[in-house]
Amino acid sequence: MARRISIFGATGSIGQSTIDLIARDLNAYDVVAVTGGQNVSRLAADAIKVNAQVAVTADESRFSDLKDALSGTDIEVAAGREALIEAACRPADWVMSAIVGAAGLEPGLKALETGAVLALANKESLVCAGPLIMRTAQAHGTEILPVDSEHSAVFQAMIGEDLSAVERVIITASGGAFRDWPIEDLAKATPAQAATHPNWDMGQRITIDSASMFNKALELIETKEYFGISPDKIETVVHPESMIHALVGFNDGALMAHVGAPDMRHAIGFALHYPTRKPLPVERLDLVKLGQMTFRNPCETRWPALRLAREVMMAGGLMGAVFNAAKERALDAFIQERITFPRMAGVVEDVLSDLSTYEGHNPAEITLDKVAEADHLARIRADEIMAR
Ligand code: NAD
Ligand code: MG
Fold this sequence. Notes:
Layout: E1 3-8, H1 13-23, E2 29-36, H2 40-50, E3 54-57, H3 63-69, E4 76-79, H4 81-88, E5 94-97, H5 105-113, E6 117-120, H6 123-139, E7 144-146, H7 149-158, E8 166-173, H8 191-194, H9 204-212, H10 214-227, E9 234-238, E10 244-250, E11 255-259, H11 265-273, H12 287-290, H13 305-315, H14 319-335, H15 343-354, H16 368-387
Parallel strand pairs: 1-2, 1-5, 2-3, 3-4, 5-6, 6-7, 8-9
Antiparallel strand pairs: 8-10, 10-11
């Protein structure tokens, strides 16, 4: 029987790579929902390509454009936040969560509640509501498979291992666009410069977050929440070639690494075919051609987001939601050229200290409403700080 799958954030970078993989073997899949935002022509083309039951644009004002683009097909058309949530409640076996930002949390939770396996690219879900999302998967007898290259790497390195023997997890970072810039020049960095990644082809927001290492900060928190590893065992190393995605260190000194070309179809394909492995259309590495792999210390003066991530991991509670929301607002402001690149970390740090009352919330009592409240107040506080 064909597997029922849905793709949330189908028009984005992860969504497009997911469609690329499933379009190679359409007979194996029965596509339930594909969703997008403003790019309704791409959404419509993909809905037709994969013969989806329903196409949803999150942007209500684009409903008639999507309807026009899909006229003459029997694909259902819907728009708006409620329609997105409704699509997430439709039974599916495997759901790709690839919306960017905290907006991706609720659709993922709804999908888990139907018992679907959640392929989780939306790292913000774990950062904002780690205990809630992990608990929801468990309560509905299903699982979450990580679709961040680093976390897929850690997951793969841990298969068949005794987890109590894990001594440390090392998450690699490319260093992003400004890795080699003099620190004093960062205040002059433009959004276009920050949105150019040396190795990965990704959405605009995550690419800028790579330059600031807010992306790595989110990933450190994601590691703690997903694998239940204590913060003192999670390390970062700058690895400019982006060939090793993560390493797991065991108590006998062995380090298990996942090595592969920087192509998200590795992690997406692994989650799609898990627990089996199937051939993937990714580059096979020629190690001799590659020649060498290098590593550097992650400088916290250049990348203060790494220090903030440690503070957030130690604080626990709802501080992840506060951190992510403040970061999203600061990133919006940088993209709109209202604040400088280095100012983003300053804004986030100030919001964290102003909203420290969200520390220490009992993880078992974290609900979607509480996450939404912390997220909302952090956005307001970030805006107030930036307006000063
Ligand atoms: P993207 O910007 O390319 O695509 C985002 C998708 O989400 C689009 O389909 C967009 O229409 C949709 N979207 C945006 N805002 C929305 C909203 N408010 N409501 C509903 N839909 C909305 O982003 P991306 O690079 O594909 O990243 C998606 C997620 O995957 C992010 O959480 C990112 O951190 C994570 N991730 C991405 C990569 C990568 O290589 N791109 C790697 C690891 C993790
Ligand atoms: Mg990553």
